[in-house]
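Aim 2 progress. For Motility protein A, the working sequence is reproduced below.
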Amino acid sequence: MDVATIIGIISGLSFVCIAMSLGGSGLAIYIHLPSLMITVGGTVAATLINYPLHEIRGVMGTVRNAFAFEMQTPAAVIERIVSYATKARREGILTLESELETANDAFLIRGVHLAIDGTAPELIRDILTTELSYVESRHALGQGIFTMMGTYSPAFGMIGTLIGLISMLRSLQDPSQIGQGMATALITTFYGALMANLIFLPIAGKLRSRTQNEMLIKEVIIEGILSIQSGDNPRIVEQKLKAFISPKLRDQVHTSIKAR
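Predicted structure tokens for this construct:
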């Protein structure tokens, strides 16, 4: 569970609500059902028009990554691959079959199985790189949908404001209604800006960060499997894989080789 996403949304809404209540007019004046219908309903409708329904359904699995996510760290992946390299070097690559029983990364398991089966290195790289590309494309679709919703919601907020202004201008003969009408018109802009900047665009950013981290780990896995298959010394495997991560993260890699 990624508590940062949940804490961010709850704390953001809380701060906004507290600030509105401290304004002296109370929260009730900010609740306006027609404005919600224009901004929320309009944003959802525009998203459905822009993307096929099956793509929106398919992206729901990706969206879960912003709230419930268990990502391996690059250090943990490197440690696991170096341990595989050590075992393969001592006992042969076929012995890695038993190690896969405790592995929980489907991408890693598929890659190691290909190596155990004696698949050519070029073919292993092609298969895993193709899978990596499609995973990245699916994730990019999820990011794109939320980025687009972050663009639509302020636009529908502005549309709601224009609708409110038109209605207000029709009652200019009653000056007492102008202030209230103007406030009502601006509520849709408030809703649209809040949804875009507190929900949609931050979630798109979180998904983008997740994707970058997942792609890095998959690239480490590909290089590690190919290095094991070629019979590299475990120390060489470790150094190859550490080259993918920053010097700060390299200090977090604790393999048995380093311990000795």
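The mean pLDDT is 86. This observation will guide construct design in the next reporting period.
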